[in-house]
């Protein structure tokens, strides 16, 4: 009987999400010990609320990035759709009708992005940047000339989406958890979810295997916009207003930072909901700490830019582009 010799290696290699969760724990402990005002109940709920909204947006972005795309229009889409929804509600439309109209608009913008990218074959970077500017310009010209829309009083159940439960738990945390579970089930348990991974891993091979990659691309961008719109609705419920200037802020880069840092690879086909949660927690804690320290905007941008650059470099190191990947185009 033949026997094998040699030393067996354990083979365990922590995932990027696991590493990021470990860094988050270390950072949380350090800030709790050294930053006054961080380890308080009030700040904890503030952190949870901020993390939830950022996480919802990152879930939507993750769908596109797993499919080897990028959506720079996500924040503009949610701002425009939420602003029109609030405008309809203020004009007397039932809340559900107004919210549904905003959802339809968000999905339409996402599907348009997917169509231009997959059928017209315009690069995703330029497509989503152009649709963001166009949607924002049209909305400002025709609907919201003063950048912001306030939700008029009398919609208590809607505002409850941004409130807290009796035990103090912010409702946005529950919304984030529900979105995360649903997206996890979609990506891991459905055929379309597996198709998205196959599409991101190798679009040409997916096409040759019979996957309709063009409709799939439209689905990816439509889901990104729809999930982002949910984050926009939570924003409105939390503040009773929507401000179009968020589309001109650095929030879109915060979302991309969360996705890439958590382990959703820019080369496509890799990452999951756990990756998004890990990146959301780390960036949420970092942003919260910078706010407590009252760092100016320029310093915060430098820190976030450095972290994003490091995350992209690490992603390139872990998932290098080979010749086959390069042929797929960027």
From TrEMBL:
Segments crossing the lipid bilayer: 18-38, 44-66, 78-109, 115-136, 157-187, 226-244, 251-268, 274-295
Compartment annotation: Cell membrane
Example of a GO cellular component annotation carried by this entry: plasma membrane
InterPro entries with a match to the protein in the record: ABC_transp_permease
Keywords: Cell inner membrane, Cell membrane, Membrane, Transmembrane, Transmembrane helix, Transport
Pfam families: BPD_transp_2
Principal localisation: membrane
UniProt topology in membrane: Multi-pass membrane protein
Any one GO MF annotation of this record: transmembrane transporter activity
Name by which UniProt lists this protein: ABC transporter permease
Taxonomic classification: Bacteria, Pseudomonadati, Pseudomonadota, Alphaproteobacteria, Rhodospirillales
């Amino acid at each position: 009987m033949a026997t094998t010799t040699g030393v067996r290696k354990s083979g365990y290699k922590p995932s990027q999400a696991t590493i990021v969760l470990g860094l988050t724990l270390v950072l949380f402990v350090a800030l709790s010990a050294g930053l006054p005002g961080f380890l308080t109940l009030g700040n904890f709920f503030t952190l949870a609320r901020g993390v939830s909204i950022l996480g919802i947006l990152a879930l939507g972005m993750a769908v596109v990035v797993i499919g080897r795309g990028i959506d720079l229009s996500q924040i503009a889409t949610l701002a425009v759709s939420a602003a029109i929804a609030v405008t309809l509600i203020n004009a007397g439309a039932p809340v559900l009708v107004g919210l549904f109209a905003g959802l339809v608009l968000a999905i339409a913008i996402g599907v348009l992005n997917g169509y231009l990218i997959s059928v017209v074959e315009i690069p995703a970077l330029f497509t989503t940047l152009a649709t963001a500017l166009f949607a924002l310009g049209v909305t400002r010209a025709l609907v919201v000339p003063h950048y912001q829309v306030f939700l008029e009083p009398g919609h208590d159940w809607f505002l409850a989406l941004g409130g807290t439960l009796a035990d103090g738990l912010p409702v946005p945390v529950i919304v984030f958890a529900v979105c995360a579970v649903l997206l996890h089930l979609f990506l891991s348990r459905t055929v379309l979810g597996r198709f998205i991974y196959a599409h991101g891993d190798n679009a040409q091979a997916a096409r040759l295997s019979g996957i309709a990659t063009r409709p799939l691309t439209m689905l990816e961008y439509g889901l990104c916009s729809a999930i982002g719109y949910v984050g926009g609705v939570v924003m409105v419920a939390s503040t009773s207003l929507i401000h179009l200037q968020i589309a001109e802020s650095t929030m879109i880069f915060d979302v991309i930072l969360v996705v890439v840092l958590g382990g959703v690879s820019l080369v496509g086909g890799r990452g999951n909901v756990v990756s998004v949660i890990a990146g959301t927690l780390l960036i949420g804690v970092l942003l919260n700490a910078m706010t407590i320290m009252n760092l100016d905007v320029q310093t915060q941008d430098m820190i976030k830019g450095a972290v994003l650059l490091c995350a992209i470099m690490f992603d390139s190191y872990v998932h290098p582009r080979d010749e086959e990947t390069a042929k797929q185009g960027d």
